[in-house]
């Protein structure tokens, strides 16, 4: 069994639950499609799978 006892899963970093509604927090990669999320940096969003980089304005 991996991880520390009592640690929360990373899935909570990707979704937000408001009552009965679930919404995505992180941006989905436009090249890879659903299921691939982009990491957030200070000045850009980057996909770890395909390497797509979108710079923030």
Characterize the structure shown:
There is one protein chain. The protein has 57 residues and is mainly β. The chain has one domain. 0% of the residues lie in helices and 32% in strands. The chain is built from no helices and 5 strands. The strands form 2 sheets. The protein has a 3-stranded antiparallel sheet, with no helix packed on it. The chain is globular and about 35 Å long. The protein starts with 14 loop residues before the first strand and ends with a strand.
Number of helices: 0
* Global shape: globular
| Biggest β-sheet: strands ordered side by side in the sheet | 3-4-5
Order of helices and strands: EEEEE
Please give the largest β-sheet.
3 strands, antiparallel
Distance between the termini: 42 Å
Q: Approximately how much helix is present in the residues? A: under 10%
Number of domains: 1
Uncertain stretches of 5 or more adjacent residues: none
What radius of gyration results from the CA coordinates? Answer: 14 Å
Give the beta-strand count. Answer: 5
| Secondary structure category | mainly beta
Average residue pLDDT: 86
Beta percentage is 25-35%
Pfam families: Ribosomal_S27 (PF01599)
Organism: Nitrosopumilus maritimus (strain SCM1)
GO biological process, one term: translation
Protein name: Small ribosomal subunit protein eS31
């Amino acid at each position: 069994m991996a991880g520390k006892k009592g640690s929360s899963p990373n899935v909570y970093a990707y979704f937000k639950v408001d009552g009965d509604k679930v919404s995505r927090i992180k941006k989905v990669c436009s090249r890879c499609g659903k299921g691939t999320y982009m990491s957030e940096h200070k000045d850009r969003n980057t996909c770890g799978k395909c390497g797509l980089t979108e710079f923030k304005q």
